Amino acid sequence: MPFDIKTLRSISSGDYRINVESYNDQPQGQVCNLHIKGGSFYSIAVLPEGIVIALDGKSVSSIDDIDMKTSPLCENLVVNGS
To answer: N or C: which end of the chain has fewer CB within 10 A?
Structure first.
């Protein structure tokens, strides 16, 4: 399975829409509306079973906390009027 690793540094605080696409739709791509606070570090990984997102230093109590479909990190924000 091909993969690509990207690192973004010095992102300003604010609301962002993260669109994660995967090779051959395995797993199906997802969108996360994320509110980024200054000094925060997030990790996103695309696995065959799904897409996970984590905030470094935040404890996780269940898979729902990091599954991009159910993570509380992915808020239903209105971004750019959409």
So the answer is: C
Phi-psi group of 59: left, alpha or beta (phi > 0 → left; psi -120 to 50 → alpha; rest → beta): beta
Domain ranges of the chain: 14-75
- String of b and e for 1-11 (b: at least 16 CB within 10 Å)? eeeeeeeeeee
H or E stretch at 16: strand 14-20
Please give the backbone phi and psi of residue 26, each rounded to the nearest 5 degrees, phi first: -120, 100
pTM of structure = 0.73
What does the alpha-carbon distance between residue 12 and residue 16 come to, in Å, rounded to a whole number?
Answer: 10
